[in-house]
Amino acid sequence: MKIQGKITEETVVVGVGAEEMWKVYSGLELGRLVSELLPHDIGTVQPIQGHGGVGTIVKLTFPPGTPGVGYLKEIFTKIDDEKRVKETETIEGGFKAMGFDLYRIRLEILENSADDQSTIIRSTIEYELDENLANFLPFVTIKPLQTMAETIGKYLCEKKKTTA
After folding, report:
1. CB 29 within 8 A of CB 45
2. Looking at the DSSP assignment, which residues form a beta bridge with residue 6?
3. 37 membership: H or E segment, kind and range
4. Catalytic residue annotation
């Protein structure tokens, strides 16, 4: 029997418009900034194949001491510039190595109707695994995606201040 699940969380980033945030999230810039700003929290990201479009494969190497497998590779499966949606799936290492049949991340960059200089980042994780592996479910967390959104938002705000 399979266990399927989904967790979603919205993070509000103040001071950065949706279009500016999408420029970072839509391609390889996100991985570059994660590597630069969050190497000890999330890890380092290295492009393996492609230039940031659908089909691009990146490798995320986790910081030392992170439980589980030390890396994962994911493929960009969807990039929708109009709706500002990006989806990736783990294809090797990480949750795949733990036995998950599916581990998909969906990132949506939404305009905050209350303020055009803030953005809502809706992060969703979808997963599927055999019920015999249910002990791995506590490892599924949206926290790294929230940390990433908050840190990149702060970085973009600071960057604006220094160039203004």
Report:
1. no
2. 126
3. helix 29-37
4. 86
* Number of domains, the chain: 1
Locus of tokens 């980033």: 13
CATH number at residue 65: 3.30.530.20
Through-space distance between the first and last CA atoms of the chain, rounded to whole angstroms: 56
Tokens coding 155: 């970085």
Q: How far apart are CA 44 and CA 35, in angstroms?
A: 4
- 3-class DSSP assignment, residue 21: helix
Of the CA atoms within 13 Å of residue 1, those in its CB half-sphere come to 4
Per-residue pLDDT of the chain (164 residues; tens, 9 = 90+): 999 999 999 999 989 999 999 999 999 999 999 999 999 999 999 999 999 999 999 999 999 888 777 999 999 999 999 999 999 999 999 999 999 999 999 999 999 877 778 999 999 999 999 999 999 999 899 999 999 999 999 999 998 878 76
Range of the domain at 20: 2-163
